[in-house]
Structure formats: structure tokens, C-alpha cells
Amino acid sequence: MAARKLAAYDAKRDFKVTSEPTGAVQVAASERARFVIQKHDATRLHYDLRLEHEGVFLSWAVTRGPSRDPHDKRLAVHVEDHPLAYGDFEGTIPKGQYGGGTVMLWDRGWWAPEPGFDLEKGLKKGEIKLVFAGERMKGGYVLVRIHNDKKGGKRENWLLIKHRDEFAIDGDTDFLNDTAFSIASGRKMEDIAAGKGKAAKPFMTAKTTPPDATWNSKPSPEASGEKAAKEAKAPKRKPAATKARKVEAKMPDFVPPQLCKLVDRPPGGEGWVHEIKFDGYRMQLRVEGGKAALRTRTGLDWSDRFPRLVADAAELPDAMIDGEVVALDEAGSPSFAGLQAALAEEDTSDLIFFAFDLLHAQGEDLTDQPLEDRKTQLKALLPKDDERLRYVEHFKSGGEAVLQSACRMSLEGVVSKKLDAPYRSGKGATWTKAKCRAGHEVVIGGWTTTGDAFRSLIVGVYRDGDLVHVGRVGTGYGRDKVAKLLPKLKAHVRKTSPFKGKGAPKGGAGVHWVDPVLVAEIEFAGFTGEGAVRQASFKGLREDKPAKAVEAEAPAPAEAVELAQPKAGKAIVKGVTLSNPDKALWPDAGDGTPGTKLDLARYYEAVGDWMLEHIRGRPCSVIRTPDGIGGESFFQRHSGKGVSALIDEVTVSGDHKPYLVFNTVEALVAAGQWGATELHPWNCREGEPEVPGRLVFDLDPGPDVSFDAVVEGAREIRDRLEALGLVGFCKTTGGKGLHVVTPLKGSKVDWDAAKAFAREVCARMAADSPDQYLITMAKKDRGGRIFLDYLRNDRMSTAVAPLSPRARPGAPVSWPVAWTQVRKGLDPSRFNIRMAPRMVKELDAWEAYAESERDLAGAIRKLGKMG
Description:
Blueprint: H1 2-5, H2 7-11, E1 34-41, E2 45-53, E3 56-62, E4 73-83, E5 91-93, E6 101-113, H3 119-125, E7 127-134, E8 138-145, E9 156-162, H4 189-193, H5 221-233, E10 258-262, E11 272-277, E12 281-288, E13 291-296, H6 307-313, E14 319-326, H7 336-344, E15 352-361, E16 364-365, H8 371-381, E17 389-391, H9 399-408, E18 413-418, E19 426-435, E20 438-450, E21 453-463, E22 466-475, H10 478-490, E23 493-494, E24 511-514, E25 519-524, E26 536-542, E27 570-573, E28 576-579, E29 584-586, E30 595-596, H11 597-615, E31 620-624, E32 634-636, E33 648-650, E34 659-661, H12 665-673, E35 676-681, E36 684-685, E37 688-692, E38 694-701, H13 707-723, E39 729-732, E40 738-743, H14 751-768, E41 773-774, E42 786-789, E43 816-817, H15 836-839, H16 856-866
Parallel strand pairs: 10-19, 15-17, 22-26, 41-42
Antiparallel strand pairs: 1-2, 1-6, 2-3, 3-4, 4-9, 5-6, 6-7, 7-8, 8-9, 11-18, 12-13, 12-14, 14-15, 15-16, 18-19, 20-21, 20-24, 20-25, 21-22, 23-24, 25-26, 27-28, 29-30, 31-32, 31-35, 33-34, 36-37, 38-40, 38-42, 39-40, 39-43
Helix pairs in contact: 11-12
């Protein structure tokens, strides 16, 4: 009977060419009907659904793949029956052969008709109600044959539709993206096509037993469906300890890891536990017979990179442990930069393996056991005194509080897990992650330069097999990172853009394309309406994740998960939770009402995009007034404990302590939560602390000098700078003075030369009008005159940032003004945190700032010629 059914299958294939099994290959009968789904990249990508029935596989080609959304009706084209041996086929079909392309075993398991459904009648009618008990396909579905209006049409079209049950997910878009690897070998499609990795483990040709022990006797088809449904639902229930049974099994070489679904807040409610999210490399530790190995998330053996960890782990009993390799900084916090440095220097002796799950132990497969049981056994298995192999503790309640604590400690975020859930490879709903800052891996497709200087990376993610552009990453570099990054980029240079689709970037001067093989980890402030990353900052390259695996990821909306809400007395601005939002920082914010912490945070949110152009990528000092401007104030330039993880840091030459850096609007809002009422960045170029990026001339009047005289002095400095080929821009200081700022090109002029130039300009101006100006700081000499402060132009000197608030009465801000406004009657007190948010949208006073960078070396030569 089966042979007759397979005649069409055999006739379409040349078995001297293809390695597909013939219809003559015999497969032993199973206690229950099996199914497989094969991802098949032939003329077009599709998924082949195969249902065991009467000794063959009934087969359909599901053009867009299965879905868990009951609203999705997926076209399924009925094709010829296949032999049962085909259920173990994973590999390539040669070009020119029927179905030529790559075949992956995407899912497999058992199926049965829905309880009470007559399968034979359904087959004749063109409707099959069925229940899946697979690794990925779970619960009820229906296959429905649809009418073909075309007479003589060869295609028999059906629809595959998900039934609404506990496994249904409305609007599910992650199913196929999150399961893009083989259920049988762990390989991606490109690995199978290239013949890489180990072959798939057999299912059809090996002795297989349904996971549910109650399937041992063969019931009716209706009962079988009940058992299938029961099996599919089984992972949702925690088995009683008295009924737990040991599943003896040979330990596999590698198990594809379980992954987290990104959410915007940790789930609340009972049954969840919360662990700290580590900023490191996900690793699987395998120990057998006194020999240990560490593998990446894709199964690459990296044991030789971590010899000390492997040596320590070799002392453990046989086990397979899921965890993360992490570097800790001096404060004991995870450091991704430290991990990269350790790998680059080939000194990984201080790295830590944090263990959070146990998949196999001493001959027992634990993946079907609840997480709670797995972690209990893991804790008992690990030594309590080993500094390098550490157990990850968890918290059983208060996910939101755990996240906030993690963010205050500069940690990456929180991973939340269902206590009663089994371990399942791929991304599901039982593991979630909530981050302190937005982060993602991206694929590098090119880079840009200005002259010889590195400027930014051009990056994308994969969508439907194409590299789609998601923006540029222009901060987070520094000289050391660029020095390591550029050789790797240049090793993969290509002539054409690797990006495809709408919005693909075009080439031009300063644009360099590369093969899309390098993966970068970035942090960013969110997505634009066009899907590009906003305010992205580079963290480092990732070697543990292949480029093809980098796909779009966005947090699940709040309504999609059970969320812990902020407690009373708190507010959220730009995703940042504010404590004591009504705390008054200014007794009067310029309109007769107090200026609160919430006002400050909202102010930073409103002006942040504009302000970031002038502070991003630069060390920045802050003045904090947590008890208001009348209370104690704190000056802080270095990062450390208690600093929000949204605020970046940078280490500069000559100081081992990292400096604060504000790269995103969220970081500015976090500064507001911190009570930072003033921001004072360095005057270097973005990402280059050793290179002067602007000159700041500060006009600081004596107590008896009118503001009109300050206006006159600012215009004179502008004129002197223009005579030297430089362009000046003016802003109020938020006090009684004015700043004249001139942007500089990156040049070989160092800080000493920049400071000397600024001093000479001020000295000549003071010499020409000694009754109006001076360049000494002594207050006793400043009566009736303006101090021309050139000292802002030293390497570590700062100036208040454009649009920064000031910790002064009236909540003033340092406001950029057009030269047409710099005239008699200018009143700087009118610029405050109340009016600035309304005016910033129309602010164009510094519109030409970025295009006005000038060469300081040329100005120095001109000044010298003037004598």
C-alpha cells in the first residue's frame, strides 16, 4: 500500500544524485503518529508539513510557515506523499533536482486527530482537525481544503489555521524568527548548506517513545488526541515531586540555548523568578569524564579561550550547565569592555562563569523538569567556595524592584523565568528580559570617515534574509576602540553596498562598504518612525554570534505581558522611574512656582536631542542638588556605584577612574532623577578627549558692569575670531555673562596650543582696551571690567553645556542666541526651564554650527603674522 502511494515521490527524484531516501527505505512503526516540519529553501522559502498516516507522510508545503496567531490563515499546498524515512532528512538537494535547495528539520513530535474528530471522514471532506505535541508546534490546528476555481488546476490548496487555545498568540511575529535553527542538530540554514556542524540526530529511524508515559498502550484515535493535547499542555504544570521520574539519557554534545523574549518591564504575579542579567558571553559548559568544554550560543568550542575556567570545571561531576562568562570591574559589576579586553589580550584568568541552569546531570536529562528543580540541583552541584564558577541566585517577587536596583548598580537588566517551566531551546514566553538601557546586536555593513578620521558605523539587521539598514552608530568609540576596529573593517572591504530594501543607504564621499560578517553590540535610545536606531552608541564587537542570526528585536508592548506598575509617589519619564518627582529643586522656576525633579526630567526630555549634539561622547561633570539649590550641592565627574546604567562612561589617559558621558536623552532624564541641575562637558571633539573640538571665551563681568557692556565685548570677540578665519556662536551662561564658542576641525593642534591661542586673543583684546577687559582672575582687579576667561580651553576644563539648567534662583538655562539677538536690552533671565521647552522647536540660532568647523592651525598662523 505504502509503495503504491510513494510512486509519485520516487518518479520525481534521481536517487543517484540526491541523498534523499527512496520510498523503499523501511521505518519501524511508532506507537503514535509522528509529524515533522522541514524548513525548505528551494525556488522560494517554505515549510513542509508532514503527518504520518498509514505508513507514509501526508505532506503540505506551507508557503509562509506555520503561525501561532489564529487570525493568520497560512496557505498549505498539498504535495505528493513522502516516505517516513524522509522525517530524518536534513541536508541539501542538488540544484537541478526536484526541490533543489537546503532542508532543515524545523520541528518534530507526535500528532493526533482532535478528540472526537473522525479522521477518515475529515480526509474525504477536506478538513483535518489535529493536535500537535512537538517542540515548537503545540496545541490545536485545522487544515482546510479550499476551492480551486481554475479548471484542471494541479495544485490542491489548503489553509493551515491555529485553533484558539492556551498556545495561541495574537499578533505573533516572532515564531519563525526565534526558531531559525534545527530542532535536530542546532544548525542554521547556512550551516547546513555549507556542510558545517554535526548531522541531525535520528527520530524516525531510531526507537522513539512519546514523552508522555501514558502513551504506552494504543488507544483509539480520539483518545490519542486527548493524550496529544495533554502532552502539549504538560509543560505548563509542575509535576508533583512524588511523581517525578528520572529520564536517563546520554548527554548530548550541545543543546541550542533557551532565549529570552524582550519586554519593557518584568512580569509580575506569582510563579516568576528574577535573575540579574549579565553583560557577557552566553556559554554552555559541558563536563564529562573529567573533561570540560565551553561552547558559544551557536555551539562553537571556545574552551581554548578560557583555560582557567575549563580547568576548574573539569573537577565537577558530569553535567551540562547553561551560563554566562563575565568580566567584573573594580566595583564588582559586569563589564563588557573588560571581557573584550581579556579576550583580546588572551588573559582570561580573572573571568567568571555565572551558572543559572542545569540541563543534564550524571546521566539524567533534566530539560523536562521545572526550572525550580533544575536550579536546586545546580546549586547543590556547584562548589560553594569557587570564585570562578558561581551560582546565580534569584528573587521570587518584586521584579520591578529588582530591575530598578539593577539599574542603580549599573547592571544590564533583569531576566525573568517561570518556575514551573521546562527548558526549551529557542525563544518562548517562559523567559523574558527587561533592560536598563536599550541594547541590540547589529551587523556592520560599512563605515564613514571625514578626511582620515573615523566617524561612524553603518549598520543593519536581517529581515527575511536581507540586510536592512537601521542607521548609523556615531558615538562610543575613542582612539583605542577605533585602532582595534579599523583593521577588522578594512579586512572585509567591498565595492558595493550589502544593504537591500527601502531606505538602503547610498554611497558617496567618505562611505566605505564591508561584507556583512562583523557583529557589533550597541546601546540606543529607541527607534525612529522609520525603524532606525536613535542615538546609538558602540559597545564592542561580538564574536559569539554569527551575523545571519542578528534579526530585529523590539520590546513587547506593556499590554502583552503582566507588568509590575510603579508605586505611588513615582513618575516615569522616557522610561526612567523618578523617585520623589514633586521634590522642589528650585523654589521659583521663573514663573513664581517651584521647579521640581519632574520638571527637570521633562525639561531634559524636551531639549535632549538638541543638547546631545554638544555633549555626546565627551566626558561631562555634573552639579547635583538632590535637596534643592538651597541645600548641599555635589560636584561629580567620575562614574561609579549609584550611577544609572543609562549614563555611559569613558576612561581618559592619565586617570584610571571612568568619567561620566551622556549619549542619549534617557541618560539626561536619568541625570534629572539624580538631581543633576548642571552639566559641564569637556570641549573636546566627540569621542576624542585628546583633541580640542571648540574654543570657549567666557565673558565674566565685575559686579558693577552692565550687561550691555558684556554684549559689546562678545561682539568684539566674534569680530576678532572672524578676522582669524574662525566662526563664533554666542550663548548666555545662565548667569551674568556670555560665552562665545567657535567649533574646530579635528587637527594636530593640541590642548596647550589651543589654550595659548585663546589666551593671546584675550590678551590682545585686553591690551587694546585695558579699562574694559582683563585676563587675570583676581577679583580685586575686576571692578568695572570684564574678565576674559580663556582658561576654559584646557584639556580637562569644562564649560556649561548649551541648554543646561543652572543651580541658581529662577532656574535659568544656558541659551544659544543669534547674533541679531546679541544687542542692547538682551535679558538672559528670560531663558529658564519653564520657557525653554516651548522655544526649543524654533531654536535655529546655531543652525550652522556643524558646518562652521574651522582649522585652528590656520588661525594660529594668521595670529602670528599679525604680530
